[in-house]
Amino acid sequence: MSSLVAAQLINGCAIGMLYAVMAFGLSIIKGLLNVPNFAHGALFAAGAYVCFGLSGLGLPFGVALACAFAVPALIGALLQRFGLEKLAKADYLLQVLFLFGVALALEQTLVVIWGTSGVSLTPPDALSGSFDLGFMRLPRYLVFVTVASAISIAVLWFLIERTRIGSQVRAGIEKSEMARCLGINVKGLLVLGFALGAGMAGLAGGIALPLLGANSSSGNDMMSIAFVVLVLGGLGSLYGSVVAGLLLGIVQSLSTLVAPTMSTLLLYVVMTLVLLVRPQGLFGER
User: Fold this and answer.
1) Mean pLDDT of all residues in the chain?
2) Where are the alpha helices (DSSP H) in 115-237?
């Protein structure tokens, strides 16, 4: 029994890190634009399909993953520059509806290109097989999912927290008018921020493809969970996204041992209980 629990803990950490990658990107966009990105799930699916398509053409898996980040990032930049920027002074609801419409358009575009049947991908040889831990065999790809997710989050965190451009992004979030007075290109930072957040969604889709597979609407469930992670960790808290993602991944994985049909429901129960005690989330300030 203990080995089974240990195996589920490891699975939970891998899934939790995927949730964290999704929520990390969502948190950046929410912090910059103060608008929930309802296209985040569609960008996740787009990243998965980009990874699938390029891998099918014979490109190395690492290159396919890089493109799974880059293509949604480009879409995100275009959405901000030619969509949300135009609606910046419009009603908040129009921005939400615009992103919702984009999500539907992206989903149908995937259907037109790849059809309605789902796709999956076999991990490359270097990531196939498993490690023998004595009490269990640990799939190499689960290790890769955890490490790749952690590295992507760490790189983006370093960019935001430890670089000049990151300090400008934070200034644009907190004091946009003052940042403009100091000569900072706030519009450009918003485009960059949306691109980074969208790219993280696509990267999560690419990483998840060999693990979960994908279809045109597979991002919907992942987006719902990403919003739960975002709220649970605290709106705008990058640290909270990581901790909440791991927490929910472990809760969901362990719950399959006793109540498999309730594993997803428990995520929402956990969020509700935490918010009853701490309405601002685990790491939120307000």
Assistant:
1) 88
2) 140-162, 164-174, 176-181, 186-212, 218-233
